[in-house]
């Protein structure tokens, strides 16, 4: 059982439903991680903005560095392995 609820749009107060919509439009839907984060709608909104910047506006080298640094920090062995090759290409 999940420790936090995975919220759907109907489970949010009406004033926060636009956050759900904005994320869904920009990413083609909402993944479970965002549905969990929506328990704190304003923090989720800020994280989505930061994520959009990193995904869409950061040059490839910066993006690769950000992914690998964050992955290594959380001991994400799988993510490290799948992103390492791409990081070598852009370096």
Question: What are its keywords?
Answer:
91 residues, mainly alpha
Condensed summary:
By secondary structure, this protein is an all-alpha fold.
Count of DSSP strands: 0
End-to-end CA span: 42 Å
Structure classification: mainly alpha
Please compute the radius of gyration using only Cα atoms.
15 Å
User: How many individual helices?
Assistant: 5
Layout of helices and strands:
Elements: H1 17-27, H2 32-37, H3 41-56, H4 60-73, H5 77-90
Helix pairs in contact: 1-3, 4-5
What does this protein look like?
The chain is an all-alpha fold and about 90 residues long. Helices cover about 65% and strands about 0% of the residues. Helix 1 (about 15-25) runs parallel beside helix 3 and helix 4 (about 60-75) packs antiparallel against helix 5. The longest helix is centred in the middle third of the chain and has 16 residues, at about 40-55. The protein is elongated and about 45 Å long. The termini are far apart. The relative contact order is 0.10.
């Amino acid at each position: 059982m999940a420790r936090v609820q995975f919220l759907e749009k109907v489970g949010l107060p009406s004033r926060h439903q636009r956050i759900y919509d904005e994320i869904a439009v920009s990413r083609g839907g909402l993944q479970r991680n965002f549905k969990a984060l929506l328990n704190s709608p304003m923090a989720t909104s800020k994280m989505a903005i930061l994520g959009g910047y990193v995904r869409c506006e950061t040059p490839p080298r910066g993006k690769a560095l950000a992914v690998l640094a964050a992955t290594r920090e959380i001991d994400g062995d799988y993510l490290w392995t799948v992103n390492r090759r791409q990081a070598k290409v852009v370096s």
